[in-house]
Amino acid sequence: MANEKLTVNVGMVGYKFMGKAHSHAYRDVGMFFDMDASVNMKAICGRDEKAVRQAADKFGWAGYETDWRALTERDDIDLIDINAPSDAHKDIAIAAAKAGKHILCEKPLALSLQDSREMLAAVREAGVRHAICFNYRFLPAVQLAKQLIDEGRLGEIHHYRATYLQDWLVDPMFPLAWRMQKSVAGSGAHGDINAHSIDLAHFLIGDFDRVVGQSKTFVTKRPLPSGTGGQDAPAAAQMGDVTVDDTTSFLAQFKNGALGTFEATRFATGWKNGNTFEINGSRGSLRFNLERLNELEVYLLDDEPHLQGFRTIKVTEGVHKYAGNWWPPGHIIGYEHSFVHIVYEFIQSIVTGGSFHPDFADGVKCQQVLEAVERSIESGAWVNVDDV
Ligand code: SOE
């Protein structure tokens, strides 16, 4: 009889946008990747029983829970996936660690650097595996960027130029969602999407030395979601305060001497998910744009002079990491595939005992840069990241 494959039993907290993306990843990963374990989607958890039961049926979970504490205490679950709003990450992760569960947590790790450090201490104390869902590292084009940098094709890195541009809040009548409340989200565009750009910089360039930032909230009051402001309340009473940034940008100096610029906004009219980076080195440059995620633009001074110019590489060949697991060249992949790749790598690392990044220590490093920027905004001065 063939060796019985190991099984990793998953429990997930959250069933909305990230819940759907992560559920898709658990369902598809075994179909496209040869794994040393099979994934068992045991239970999905959410407070609204009707909604979470529907999500369990639709997304393919065997069961559901309405209390995350019950989920973390179940002895038929090995891995807890946390994609609840950011204010819940710390309590769920610490409870899951104490229960001996491996953890995949959505970004940002926590509401604060202090909380993220407590989460890291808890998973280390418990000896469980831990991951933070910086999924963009796992796109073939980003992996190719990393390969070219590590091969020295760009030479000495001088500039890292990152934007994360969205426009879903340009309409002042967009209701006050949890992402606009500091108590729940920790920050606005900064912790939500500068977090991705900071992690990609850590992955591609290295550690930050010091930062200085600015931020702004363009729309300071928004309509409360229907049913929360009191239907018969006067119009003014149906508005709530936005307590986070609509945009945060900052300058950075890296420890390896490179300089960086970072901009995150939800008011870049026309941009929908413009996670971009450009890297300029002494021997060449790279350009990536998530809205064209199957492509990487490359300029190499090592090309013959008459052939020099930015080329657009279609990162869909079998030689490109992960691309060959999907379709023939040119058949492209999408945003959701980045989650399949991170789930594959994390579950393989659990089963084989191999290393995995980004883990909670990477999440703390990101939180440290986020907080250094916030302190610089308060003081108006540069802040050394290691001093945070
Ligand atoms: C909203 O800004 C959001 O869903 C982020 O929270 C995700 O991390 C990003 O991948 C897409 O945009």
Counting helices, strands and paired strands, the structural category is alpha/beta
Bound ligand species: alpha-L-sorbopyranose
- Cα-to-Cα separation, first versus last residue: 56 Å
Poorly predicted tracts of residues:
none
Helices and strands, in order, run as EHEHEHEHEHEHEHHEEEEEEEEEHHE
Portion in strands:
15-25%
Number of strands: 17
Helix count equals 10
Shape: globular
Gyration radius from CA atoms, angstroms: 21 Å
Going across the biggest sheet, name each strand in turn: 16-15-14-13-7-12-11-8-17
Helix coverage percent: 25-40%
Which whole number gives the mean pLDDT? Answer: 96
**Major sheet details:** 9 strands, mixed
SSE layout:
Layout (H helix, E strand, L loop, with lengths): L5 E8 L3 H16 L4 E9 L3 H11 L3 E3 L2 H6 L5 E4 L6 H10 L3 E4 L7 H14 L3 E3 L7 H11 L6 E9 L16 H4 L3 H16 L3 E9 L4 E3 L15 E3 L5 E8 L4 E7 L8 E8 L2 E6 L5 E6 L10 E4 L20 H18 L7 H20 L3 E2 L4
Parallel strand pairs: 1-2, 1-4, 2-3, 4-5, 5-6, 7-12
Antiparallel strand pairs: 7-13, 8-11, 8-17, 9-10, 11-12, 13-14, 14-15, 15-16
Helix pairs in contact: 1-9, 4-5, 5-10, 8-10
This protein binds alpha-L-sorbopyranose (SOE).
Alpha-L-sorbopyranose binds next to helix 8.
